[in-house]
Amino acid sequence: MTAPTPDTPLVLALPKGRILKAAAPLLAGAGITPAADCLDEGSRRLRFPTDDPMLDVVRVRSFDVATFVAFGGAQLGICGADVLMEFDYPEIYAPLDLRIGACRVSVARPVGHGAADIPAHWSRVRVATKYPALTRRHFAARGINADIVHLHGAMELAPVLDLSQLIVDLVDTGSTLRANGLEETETIASVTSRLIVNRTALKTQPERIGALIARFRHALSATPEHEAATA
Ligand code: PRP
């Protein structure tokens, strides 16, 4: 990776979709004003200037925020704890829980299968998920081998179309599960979004990156807990 130099803009990676909207008030609270089309999902631009000539923003898929930061393409990012658990990148430091995007990673299966998600005598189970590593770890801890069907969306279709017995996915309101004849059987982890930074960048430019972390911390302290949790 190329470490940023003091005379080049830092890059903050933001996730597309619902977290981007939830992050907007925090960015404002941190005094970061990206170009107006950054929050417009219709815009095809991927990199945006901000009102600070030494800070740019890039808009990428939520899973890719962690990868851009781990490889140093972006020095900071906003990333779900689910993604951090999946990749477990040692290069990433997550100093702040931003208290937005609250949801959970859960196991679900078709309704009407009794109490247990997995019959006691099973030693393997087929699971559709976008979290292969997290899912394998979770079932391995229960002594069960998870055969992973790796999907990037529409996991809820997998049990119905016989691709898998279970799914592991994000659940917020539960309406996607209900609409597809599934029920949650187990919560693996609670999820919120985190501010993440590249450790090397933080070591080489502690003042600039530390100042940005402090601005997010200040924005958080000005946001009442209950408002952040529902964002
Ligand atoms: C997530 C997740 C579920 C849905 C859960 O998908 O994968 O499909 O949200 O939300 P709910 O419990 O409120 O129904 P998202 O909309 O983020 O899109 P994705 O499929 O691209 O991940």
UniProtKB/TrEMBL annotation:
Family under the similarity heading: Belongs to the ATP phosphoribosyltransferase family. Short subfamily.
Keyword annotations from UniProtKB, A to Z: Amino-acid biosynthesis, ATP-binding, Cytoplasm, Glycosyltransferase, Histidine biosynthesis, Nucleotide-binding, Transferase
CDD domains from the UniProt entry: PBP2_HisGs (cd13595)
GO cellular component entries: cytoplasm
UniProt GO molecular function: ATP binding; ATP phosphoribosyltransferase activity
Reaction equation(s) it catalyzes: 1-(5-phospho-beta-D-ribosyl)-ATP + diphosphate = 5-phospho-alpha-D-ribose 1-diphosphate + ATP
Domain ATP phosphoribosyltransferase catalytic: 61-217
Protein name: ATP phosphoribosyltransferase
UniProt cross-references to Gene3D superfamilies, sorted A to Z: Periplasmic binding protein-like II (3.40.190.10)
Coiled coil: none
Catalytic activity, EC: 2.4.2.17
A biological process term (GO) from this entry: L-histidine biosynthetic process
InterPro entries recorded: ATP_PRibTrfase_cat, ATP_PRibTrfase_CS, ATP_PRibTrfase_HisG, ATP_PRibTrfase_HisG_short
PROSITE patterns named among the record's database cross-references: ATP_P_PHORIBOSYLTR
Top class in the EC scheme: transferase
Entry text on domains: Lacks the C-terminal regulatory region which is replaced by HisZ.
Subunit structure: Heteromultimer composed of HisG and HisZ subunits.
Keyword Amino-acid biosynthesis: yes
Pathway(s) annotated for this protein in UniProt: Amino-acid biosynthesis; L-histidine biosynthesis; L-histidine from 5-phospho-alpha-D-ribose 1-diphosphate: step 1/9
Domain of life: Bacteria
SUPFAM superfamilies given in the database record: Periplasmic binding protein-like II
